[in-house]
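[Automated response] Your request has been received and processed.

Submitted sequence:
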Amino acid sequence: MLRSVKAQDYMATKLVTFRPETDLFDAISALREYKLSAFPVIDADGGLVGILSEVDCLRAILSQTYHEEEMGSGGHISDYMSMQVDTVPHDADIIAVSDIFIAKGRRCLPVVKSGKLVGMISRSDVLRAVEDFAKDG
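Generated structure:
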């Protein structure tokens, strides 16, 4: 049954993460380099404190442009990241993860275990899980 397939079985575990004090332009460079739409932001203990998305970066740039601020330093990502983050537990089944993707319209979701970030799962990961399940029948 597809509900037996868990987020931890398909999540990415080799993550690029940011700290809240990361410069906005360094974060934008990393987003482009790794071709991802969002990165988790963690504290010194590995706790998830936010997520920085392409949309957050665009909002930051537009805000700075609107206020005619100097673009040399973008400021810290803590000023722009989303702090209300939808997450999934590591043992959530793929159906529950799919429900969140559909309801929230996210491209990827942080996966947590005991309050700590352990991975990220994308819509593509869920589709891969479904495809693997269909093949293995």
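Summary generated for your ticket: Residues 6 and 92 are 5 Å apart (CA to CA). Residues 2-136 form a domain with the CBS-domain fold (CATH 3.10.580.10).
If you did not submit this request, please reply to this message.
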